Amino acid sequence: MKINPEVALALKEGRAVVALESTIISHGMPYPKNVETALKVEATVRENGAVPATIGIIDGEIIIGMSPEQIEDFGKKKGIAKVSKRDLPIVVAKKQYGATTVSATMLCAKMAGIPLFVTGGIGGVHRGAEKTFDISRDLKELGEVDVTVVCSGAKAILDIPKTLEYLETEGVTVLSYKAERFANFYSLATDAPVDYAFQNPEEAAEILYAKKKLGLKGGVLISNPIPEEMALPHEYIDSIVDQAVKEAEEQGVKGKDATPFLLKRIVELTGGKSLESNIALVCHNAELGAKIAVELARKERQI
Ligand code: PSU
Ligand code: MN
């Protein structure tokens, strides 16, 4: 593992660091918007007082805090492996490139000592999972690894009620920022309640700190709804997701290819609108995540 000097120093001094994933760069968005977004997210983290650490694997080495050149490379290069927990040892041993998903990014963040991670939407229980068994590893990682994940809920392509049931079984605390309902990725809110709606970053940090003191294993999920002006109408996006899911079934797309296929298809079907919403929500999450990380670092230093 290679931790970049700026990130290493911040961690040593107990300053706030925010981890960021690389699957969203290589498999979640098209070039060049993927690179622009990743750099904008890093800038947003900085503006809000924390140090960004984008995580990816280069020639088998886990990089904690990729350089802008490395991010550009990840955005352009074709055929970078999408790395979840099960893929980590192979990519490292074989000295390959790997883009880390929420699952693998949580594991790497934990190894580096970074307590908080920002993404767009987590993976979850897929629609039709009762037949396919397709449940993202992200949910198990949230149950096991002590890293807080800030997101806009689970991706719209998923079965949200089943995803929340699974999180409950895993004992994952689900918090939401100024909203009583779980975020709905591209659109405003789902019908699903959360465990607690906090009103400011300090309140979230208090809960994270209490969890740590209790020695409870696993992550906390922080749901942050998309900014209202960037939200897509529920019925509109739902019908498009239905169509994309149907096409995936017809074309036999499954396993780790399902999510990238669906996200790409939704961008095409919305004429790029879903991409703009996706970018907006990730940046919005970076702002909230950095503010919570700053409050958490402040609490930790007072011990
Ligand atoms: N959030 C986004 N875009 C993405 C992802 C999340 O806004 O591309 C990625 C994350 O890396 C997540 C992965 O972990 O999709 C889930 O893939 P799967 O459903 O195959 O577990
Ligand atoms: Mn899957």
Work out the count of structural domains: 1
The helix content is 40-55%
Under CATH, the topology is which?
A: Indigoidine synthase fold
Poorly predicted runs of 5 or more residues: none
Which structural class should the secondary elements be placed in? Answer: alpha/beta
Radius of gyration: 18 Å
The main sheet comes to: 11 strands, mixed
CATH architecture tag: 3-Layer(aba) Sandwich
Estimated share of beta-strand residues: 15-25%
Looking at this structure, what is the CATH superfamily? Indigoidine synthase domain
Count of separate DSSP helical elements: 13
What does this 3D model show about the protein?
This protein has one domain (2-302): Indigoidine synthase fold (3-Layer(aba) Sandwich). Helix content is 49%, strand content 18%. Strands 1, 2, 3, 4, 5, 6, 7, 8, 9, 12 and 13 form an eleven-stranded mixed sheet that branches. It has helices spanning 5-12, 23-28, 33-47, 68-76, 88-93, 102-112, 129-132, 137-144, 160-169, 201-214, 234-250, 258-269, 273-301; strands at residues 2-3, 17-20, 51-58, 61-64, 81-83, 98-100, 116-118, 148-151, 173-177, 181-184, 187-193, 196-198, 220-223. It binds pseudouridine-5'-monophosphate (PSU) and manganese (II) ion. Residues 21, 23-24, 27-28, 101-103, 119-121, 123, 136-138, 155, 256, 259, 263, 278 line the site of pseudouridine-5'-monophosphate.
